[in-house]
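Notebook entry, cofactor series.
This is the third protein in the set we're modelling with a bound small molecule. For this one the ligand is zinc ion. I'm keeping the input format identical across the series so the outputs can be compared line by line later. Sequence and SMILES below, as received.
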Amino acid sequence: MVLNRVSADGLGPAVLGRGGSKGPLRGPLLSSQGEALELRDVAMPEAGPAQIRLRVKACGLCRTDLHVVDGDLKEPKLPLVPGHQIVGVVDQVGADVRGLAVGDRVGVPWLGGSCGRCRYCQAGDENLCDSARYTGYQIDGGFADYCVADARFCFALPAEQDDITVAPLLCAGLIGYRALRMTGDATELGFYGFGSAAHLMTQVARHQGRRVYAFTRASDVASRGFALGLGATWAGPSDERPEVELDAAILFAPAGELLPLALKAVRKGGTVVCAGIHMSDIPSFPYALLWGERVVRSVANLTRRDGIDFLAVARTMSIVAQTTVYGLEEANRALGDLRRGDVQGSAVLRVA
Ligand SMILES: [Zn+2]
Ligand SMILES: [Zn+2]
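Returned structure with ligand:
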């Protein structure tokens, strides 16, 4: 579905880009959860003292964007510009910003800011900060021509990756990597749900000498072929089990009914990591599935350390995101394709 350009009622007057040479700035906005985005003319944002403004080049889509748009996550700012895997070029720098200059290419992730003072922030666990604010959720994100971001939470990007292929690394990549690290030294590794994060982490896991077992919906033959093509050892429906016991599994799909299935497939002492920000209810299951010191844990958000570490890994190995590219005006179509599971790999909006 192509977005309709509508008037900027309630959003202030549309303004022209710098020098008046550009047309009105575009921002597909979420006005109400559960409804489609509307392409509106929006005002040029201005960088605050600790912020940079970016000319957005590309923005990846993530299942979390669906949770925001569909209303599974309950505390968005509204109206909201979604999008939290932003690649852009700095075009304005706040007075207090150090180390970034106009013309630098940076990435903006989901974690847009944290308090810096609480017990979690002090311990480097800023992903758990109660006052954290999130890009494309409580802060306007990258489905727009321009955005602003706290410079302290932005990342330098690997120069060898272009704008489109580097975008999915900023959430699917680095939160996927946080989940992967939580599997410790697991060699036999199950991935439940084979979307953006799993296809990137398959490449990392193979590079690290692990074996990947890809579990998908029964009808999703295409994703199983995709997984095998990326080097997965085995691919099958989620209710099947490979011949080997798994050392660990990561649930990328937001489906609680997968948890008991994953516990059945994991050996004693193994870990099941729930990587999504939202999941449907987990059905009750016999204690015997958890017995044997199996561990279930979640992954929440990201730290800046995760980003620095993962982007360093991405530089040292040839991790390549397979992307389906949409125009900014096609944001609703992209979200729809992602919702139906029709995107192989990562969906990315090309903005400029
Ligand atoms: Zn904090
Ligand atoms: Zn995300």
